[in-house]
Amino acid sequence: DSGVTQTPKHLITATGQRVTLRCSPRSGDLSVYWYQQSLDQGLQFLIQYYNGEERAKGNILERFSAQQFPDLHSELNLSSLELGDSALYFCASSATSGSANEQFFGPGTRLTVL
Amino acid sequence: EDQVTQSPEALRLQEGESSSLNCSYTVSGLRGLFWYRQDPGKGPEFLFTLYSAGEEKEKERLKATLTKKESFLHITAPKPEDSATYLCAARYNFNKFYFGSGTKLNVKP
User: Is B72 within 8 Å of chain A by CB?
Assistant: First the structure.
């Protein structure tokens, strides 16, 4: 158990809908990262937050947004969902904003868009 | 574009048969090279971080090494429980992370 929690575990929704994925980092970790893992694309870095502020952006679509709250939990919002958004979404946390500390991954949320 | 490439895509070994996994990366702007293990349906589990050419790190049957353009994950006398997908990731300037597509390792008893 990495100490990172993600909810829900599974999510099934329809095209055009909007969903919110939630992540609680390990106790004491200030950085949260979001990743998308699909069969054809592998693990893709989406975005990083550090202590409430956006720190780095990867291949995140404009339909997707994220935020980190004062209690350090983070939410990833996915809107106007398409079939291709079906994937495993992972959250990871680390103690600082840099890569000196390894990232600890949560169990993931499996999103299915029908 | 920054890129991380892993080979082979899949590797089948007999228990006790040592081998190496390869990860090649774009050199410019590298800030760290990471190895993770991922079991089916689970999040990646951190193994090692390497920062400079010549650096080596070991953990049980695994040893990670870094050269100027490649990293290797050496597996010595593997056991069936080492079966997993091994992911290599690179961090570049501005905290951008790129993962390779992984090597799926299957160790037969």
Answer: no
